[in-house]
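Second attempt. The first submission of Nitrogen fixation protein NifZ had a stray character pasted in from the spreadsheet, which I only caught after the job came back as garbage. Lesson logged: always re-copy from the clean sequence file. Corrected sequence (85 aa) follows.
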Amino acid sequence: MTMMDIREPVFGWGERVAAAVDLVNDGSYPGVAAEAVLAEAGSVGEIVNVGHHADANIPVYLVEFLAASGTQVVVGCLEEELVRV
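This time the job returned cleanly.
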């Protein structure tokens, strides 16, 4: 059995990023309807944690966005869903 190299994240904790696409609830965000937009494309947020999906060998980012309603939402994002600001 060989160990897979862990893919390094391109974004870091505390970094400001923007949503590259509309981020919608896949059903895992409590209290919000499935398919509801959590953060619109272009919304700016800050990375508050960086994790790793072991099976897919990809970084996963928790990003705190200010929603259009004025409330803060923390959304799990993949690299292709984010861009640097």
